[in-house]
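User: Could you go from structure to sequence for me? I need the amino acid at each position, not a summary. Structure tokens:
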């Protein structure tokens, strides 16, 4: 894919050229007029376009691209520090394919570039099939709808200053989602892993998100075991309304958490998804007042695998009595919530799954790094492992250091 970088700041251009040089062919310029000329003379697949530039700004460049019948199919991602919703909405209405906020989050950049590359590739393969193109366009709109439900990275960082989110859908929309809310002086957060992937899983995840919004934000219930039971009962109720067809996609794995910063108490209930907690070796861990044995031990830290119910939340199961687990967080503790897409990815020189042991070992090895650096380490590890293989499932990892 040939990418044109347009930014009036040389250091921003250099940063993007450095990030993209191994995966994409790049051309760069520092103003919009030159960009239009380059697009006219070269076959540019995608433009990374700044908004605030001299002569003509990014909005005007985008407008001229979309009005020119020879180049209007060129994909454009706005890269900007203008984060007002009105500016974002304006860019999308003119014809931008997506947008990225500055300072640039590398995983977000690559994820959005890969999404556009997939779309470009499919469009090139089946240009004669307009219906297919229309389906993809609606998928992009569905992706924006789903992203609008999720907490953005700034909101998540406000709630958890030392944290990261890795969110990599397999098929544009995702069956993996996360949820967070601050209610009654407590922080509730959850991770959802819907069965399968693609559109059916995304529909189920959105339904689950709306159920969580109802019980947490409207009913103001944050006790994890109560939330888990409510989600189970509501999914079972709504997905069994029609007797005309058997629904095969009515199951999720999940973990629900409630954190009280004042008491430093973490309550959780899980349905088949664990929590990983990493703590200094000098400190023991008790769950429900029972001392725990670490799953693996490093030089300075111990890794604990916190499990809950072994049953998923499923329309085929009776409503489970999800057990409430509790522990006291110690300053410096780091927890990770993750879906199985990361550890199930096929790759490496032996074409095997990435194992939980590899995941645990790598988590222990990066504990001296801040959470932003950890995010890059985990993303790069995944990228290197899966280099010659397609992504097999949706991927979601939440990392939080207390």
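Assistant: Here is the amino acid at each position, in order:
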């Amino acid at each position: 894919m040939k990418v044109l970088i347009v930014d009036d700041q040389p250091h921003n251009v250099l940063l993007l050229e450095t990030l993209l040089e191994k995966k994409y062919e790049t051309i760069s310029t520092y103003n919009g007029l030159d960009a239009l000329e380059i697009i006219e003379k070269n076959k540019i697949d995608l433009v990374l376009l700044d908004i605030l530039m001299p002569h003509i700004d990014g909005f005007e460049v985008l407008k001229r691209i979309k009005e020119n019948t020879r180049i209007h199919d060129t994909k454009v991602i706005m890269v900007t520090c203008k984060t007002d919703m009105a500016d974002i909405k304006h860019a999308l209405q003119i014809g931008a394919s997506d947008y990225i906020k500055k300072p640039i989050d590398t995983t977000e950049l690559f994820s959005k570039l890969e999404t556009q590359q997939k779309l470009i590739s499919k469009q090139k393969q089946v240009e004669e099939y307009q219906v297919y193109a229309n389906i993809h366009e609606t998928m992009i709109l569905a992706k924006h709808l789903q992203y609008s439900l999720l907490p953005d990275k700034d909101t998540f960082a406000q709630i958890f200053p030392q944290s990261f989110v890795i969110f990599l859908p397999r098929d544009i929309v995702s069956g993996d989602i996360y949820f967070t809310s601050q209610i009654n002086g407590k922080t509730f957060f959850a991770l959802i892993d819907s069965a399968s992937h693609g559109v059916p899983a995304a529909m189920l995840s959105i339904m689950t998100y709306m159920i969580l919004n109802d019980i947490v934000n409207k009913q103001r219930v944050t006790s994890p075991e109560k939330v888990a039971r409510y989600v189970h009962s509501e999914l079972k109720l709504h997905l069994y309304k029609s007797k005309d067809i058997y629904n095969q996609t009515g199951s999720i794995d999940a973990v629900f958490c409630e954190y009280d910063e004042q008491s430093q108490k973490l309550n959780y209930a899980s349905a088949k998804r664990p929590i990983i907690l990493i703590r200094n070796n000098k400190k023991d861990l008790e769950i429900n007042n029972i001392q725990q044995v670490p799953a693996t031990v490093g030089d300075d830290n111990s890794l604990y695998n916190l499990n809950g119910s072994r049953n998923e939340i499923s329309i085929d199961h009776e409503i489970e009595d999800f057990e409430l687990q509790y522990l006291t967080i110690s300053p410096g503790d780091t927890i990770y919530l993750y879906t199985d897409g990361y550890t199930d990815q096929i790759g490496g020189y032996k074409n095997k799954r990435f194992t939980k042991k590899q995941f645990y070992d790598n988590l222990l090895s990066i504990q001296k790094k801040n959470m932003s650096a950890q995010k890059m380490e985990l993303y790069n590890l995944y990228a290197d492992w899966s280099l010659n293989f397609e992504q097999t499932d949706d991927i979601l990892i939440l990392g939080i250091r207390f």
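One structural detail worth keeping in mind: The chain has eleven helices and 21 strands.
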